[in-house]
Design brief:
Beta-Lactamase, 434 Repressor (Amino-terminal Domain), alpha+beta, 11% strand, 11 helices
Length: 263
């Protein structure tokens, strides 16, 4: 099957406009003339391999899409996409597992670029009480799991705030990546019912996750981490989300939950 490939100049122009940069601004960042950039975008000039990579770096194009730019320009991709189960990914998997295990008794999970669950620690089970089994069938999408009416949503006390927070994050990722799969996921999520208004907190310095558990309310703050110098697409697209107790009662409940699991 032959796939229609858009010209590299058209793709470069799309990414520049996505980043809301003028030709002048990008040419100054990349240290090239505006005329040269214009010729590349219109197809009057063909960019070299190094030029494609330079412009992609200035435009902060994701590694997956840098490969697509290279292919469109007639060059071989330079970024690999290695399975996490491959031997050469052993150090990455080990680092991720150490982070997850070291974070217990607090919940933590790893997701890929589509927000599908890659790994988690045992404490994440505390957040999944009452979730419909079909939502836990692989691939588990953590955004769908959070906002679906048969997922975590009925237990989230500040669903409007948390929903606004998650959808905002997703929209920002769509802006950065121009990923059509994420756009479809956003369309699905916004269609889920929510009686709680999508508001933003007035008093909290961050948006907490407030969730019902055994007749009480647990409150969490979350921190998202990524690998700092990825050279592989798989690694670049991994995110680790760690949940921390926002109060002493939640911290005690998490310790008690871990003790119950040990019995």
């Amino acid at each position: 099957m032959t796939l229609t490939q858009r010209p590299v100049g058209e793709l470069l122009r799309q990414w520049r406009e996505q980043r809301r940069l003028s030709q002048l601004a990008l040419s100054l960042q990349a240290d090239i003339s505006t005329r040269h950039l214009s010729f590349m975008e219109t197809g009057r000039s063909s960019p070299s391999r190094d030029m494609v990579l330079r412009l992609a770096e200035e435009l902060e194009v994701p590694l997956r899409d840098r490969n697509r730019l290279l292919l469109a320009a007639g060059y071989a991709p330079v970024y690999g996409e290695t399975s996490l189960d491959a031997p050469e990914m052993a150090a990455v998997k080990s680092a991720v597992r150490r982070i997850l295990a070291g974070h217990e008794p607090y919940p933590a999970c790893v997701v890929d670029r589509q927000w599908n669950l890659v790994d988690s620690n045992a404490a994440i089970q505390l957040l999944l009480t009452g979730v419909a089994p079909e939502l836990l069938a692989p691939p588990v999408n953590v955004l769908r799991l959070s906002l679906h009416p048969q997922g975590m949503a009925p237990r989230i006390r500040n669903l409007g705030e948390w929903r606004a927070h998650l959808l905002g994050r997703l929209r920002r990722e769509i802006t950065v990546t121009a990923d059509e799969g994420l756009s479809r996921l956003h369309q699905e999520l916004v269609a889920y019912p929510c009686d709680d208004p999508e508001t933003h907190p007035e008093d909290d310095v961050v948006v907490p996750l407030r969730i019902a558990h055994n007749g009480t309310e647990l409150a969490f703050l979350s921190i998202v981490a990524t690998f700092g110098t990825p050279a592989d697409i798989t690694v670049a697209e991994l995110s680790i989300e760690s949940f921390y107790p926002a109060d002493d009662a939640t911290a005690r409940a998490l310790v008690a939950f871990k003790d119950e699991q040990r019995r």
